[in-house]
Amino acid sequence: MQFYLSSYRFGNDPARMIYAATANWRVGVVQNALDGYADLSLRRVALEQEFAGLAAIGLTPEELDLREYFGAEVRLQKRGIMFAALVSPC
Fold first, then answer.
1. Is 87 helix (H, G, I), strand (E, B) or coil?
2. Degrees (nearest 5) of the Cα angle 56, 64, 51?
3. pTM of the prediction?
4. Residue 66: helix, strand or coil by DSSP?
5. From CA 39, how far away is CA 60, in angstroms rounded?
6. For residue 84, how many other CB atoms are within 10 A of its CB?
7. Distance between CA atoms of 57 and 17, rounded to whole angstroms?
8. φ and ψ at 21, to 5 degrees?
9. What are the angstrom distances between the C-alpha of 65 and each of 11, 16, 31?
10. What string of pLDDT tens digits covers the 90 residues of the chain?
11. Per-residue DSSP letter, 77
């Protein structure tokens, strides 16, 4: 797995994101920065926007909700290796 770090969305070079995921087009999206939203519909909208951006550059996004893996590190490792990259938007 490679990391593509950007301060906002895909930065100024989204082609590098595609390059990082060429062997596997699946990308895990970690929305932990949005856990504080009381209105879950806002979290869902933010996730859908992130999915749309990733799909637009040819990637297959899937949510990776870390809250489902507390105390289950081995299960998280198995799930994490299925992705070419992890994205955590702010």
1. strand
2. 15
3. 0.71
4. helix
5. 26
6. 19
7. 9
8. -115, 20
9. 23, 25, 7
10. 556 666 666 666 666 666 655 656 888 888 876 667 677 888 888 889 889 988 888 889 999 888 888 999 999 888 888 887 777 776
11. H
